[in-house]
Amino acid sequence: MSAAEAGGVVHRARGRTLDAFPSEKEREWKGPFYFIQGADPQFGLMKAWSTGDCDRCGDEWGQEIRLTEQAVQAINRLNPKPKFFVLCGDLVHAMPGTPWRKEQTEDLQRVLRDVNSEIPLVFVSGNHDVGNVPTRETIAEFHQTWGDDYFSFWVGGVLFLVLNSQFLYDASGCPALKQAQDQWLDQQLSIAGQRKCQHAIIFQHIPLFLESIDEDDDYFNLPKSVRKEMADKLSKAGIKAVFSGHYHRNAGGIYQNLDMVVSSAIGCQLGKDTHGLRVVVVTAEKIVHRYYSLDELSEKGIEDDLMDLMKEK
């Protein structure tokens, strides 16, 4: 089953542009809106983490199914509907070429079929989706299953860029593909740099940093050798925010005018946060976001102060 079959409106990126939104129509600012960000449903990790063997023991994922079903139900109840729902990587736990990958993928796609057909889904590649050291073969598999690994789309005058952050972490298995993304990104940033959009926002799996641009290298951030250069490039182009996952905890910080947002997981928690989703409100002047537990969003919905922002002219 492909991503295009996974839900009522699951859109694949074609030609590096998401087909969910007619780009010309969506290039104009029409007023505040919001979207939902999730990360790391990672079917199979909760069992693997509990056993202490993350490489071999992801053979159960019933908990992740229930949590993702709860997330879908919470999103479907929101009124007004979000403009889209983006999943920032590690869709399943099984790495390319390992047991349970096909079954985990099929179960996630089955759950996502229940997302309201009027809410487009946007998929971001994570290290478990394309491999810690991606290759042409693992990228091709992602394309077949979920769509392009990097692409752009417009919503209401805002330019959104989806990146394959694994190319920034270790592209030794496919350097030409990384070079292609780099060239494409420079072209997209030139649009943002000329201020031809109300805002420009990036989605990627691995955060640039967890708290500070100067922090030490870690499994959960991009290496210093690329982090500062990348952050400077994005900031110079006027990128307002980078939304990521990977850490399975909430974190983030500010670098210059760039908001690095690290969202915890729908699935396995590695810290003290709860399974949840992030509500992101985009106004003419700012981007406001808040993380909700799945229980909070299911029971109470979006709080009034965020709803009021969407009423601003």
Automatic annotation (TrEMBL):
Pfam hit, one: Metallophos
Co-factor(s): a divalent metal cation
Record keywords: Cytoplasm, Hydrolase, Metal-binding
EC code: 3.1.3.16
Location(s) in or outside the cell: Cytoplasm
InterPro entries (alphabetical): Calcineurin-like_PHP (IPR004843), Metallo-depent_PP-like (IPR029052), MPP_CSTP1 (IPR041867), STPP_CPPED1 (IPR051918)
Keyword Metal-binding: yes
Domain Calcineurin-like phosphoesterase: 68-249
Signal peptide span: none
Catalytic activity field: O-phospho-L-seryl-[protein] + H2O = L-seryl-[protein] + phosphate; O-phospho-L-threonyl-[protein] + H2O = L-threonyl-[protein] + phosphate
Gene3D superfamilies: 3.60.21.10
Chief location of this protein within or outside the cell: cytoplasm
Annotated family: Belongs to the metallophosphoesterase superfamily. CPPED1 family.
Biological role: Protein phosphatase that dephosphorylates AKT family kinase specifically at 'Ser-473', blocking cell cycle progression and promoting cell apoptosis. May play an inhibitory role in glucose uptake by adipocytes.
Name recorded for this polypeptide: Serine/threonine-protein phosphatase CPPED1
Organism listed in the record: Ceratotherium simum simum
